[in-house]
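Researcher: For the record, we're logging two predictions in this thread. I'll number them. Prediction 1 follows.
Model: Prediction 1, sequence and structure:
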Amino acid sequence: MKKQAGFSLLEVMISVVIAGIALLGLAAAQLKSLQYATNSFHYTVSLIQGQNSIERIWPRICEIQKTNPALFQDVDFRASLAPQVADYEITIPAIYNDDMQINVAWVDERMTDNAENQISLNASFPDLSAVCL
């Protein structure tokens, strides 16, 4: 009787199916990884956009706190606080407060839960009205 020297067709087909399933799993993991990396990028850009808006309030803080509180509600001033990059939406309180919350949101259709596609920054400004000239 002659000994079998190689693999049977059935063994080869089973190994191909197992390898295919493993490669599909790796591809799905890579896709998810790219989605999370993109969302992380949006998160970082949103942090920068929110921080920029807070920083743009500082040069006018004396005017807002002491002489012209209505400046915070001025359309042009609020437009200057808007995000500098498209696809991001910033929400700033309607009335100035020394402690306020600023929200930045973005849309990422690849992520299933768009409620997570926003950040909140707490801005705290000291009362400088006594030292402002």
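Researcher: Logged. Prediction 2.
Model: Prediction 2, sequence and structure:
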Amino acid sequence: MQPGLIIIIAIVSAILSFAVSFLLLKWWFSRKYAEWQIIERASLDAERKSIRKQAITQSRAVLGGRFTEQMAPYLPEFKYDPTEARFIGSPVDMMVFPGLSQGEPTEIIIMEIKNGPCAQLTPVERKIQRLVEEGMVRWELLERSGEQSSLDEDLQP
């Protein structure tokens, strides 16, 4: 055999070996990539379902909590006359004026309603609690000036 032919055969077989190896590796990596995609899609779907379920559960808890806050005066645990309670919602849930129904309020109660085993005051609610406990509460009267009243009279038919 001629040395040139041997070199050509060696080069062609090297190119064929490289091409076959490349195609086999490409097929193997493509298969592995497709398997990885299937696993990741399943994982993402499961995570999406979990997040959706958690959001629904949390939403129900929030709605249930708001319902409980507004219905608190009618619950058996409520110690005051429901007609003397005023729902505020934020930053505190309710104010109660014991004795108001007889026209003789005796105190003012700022009430926060919590529901559930993990119920905790928010930082703002804790701050308001501290302000009340420290006596940092006052009465203020806002009176409208006569100028504003005359404007209201001009608007009446």
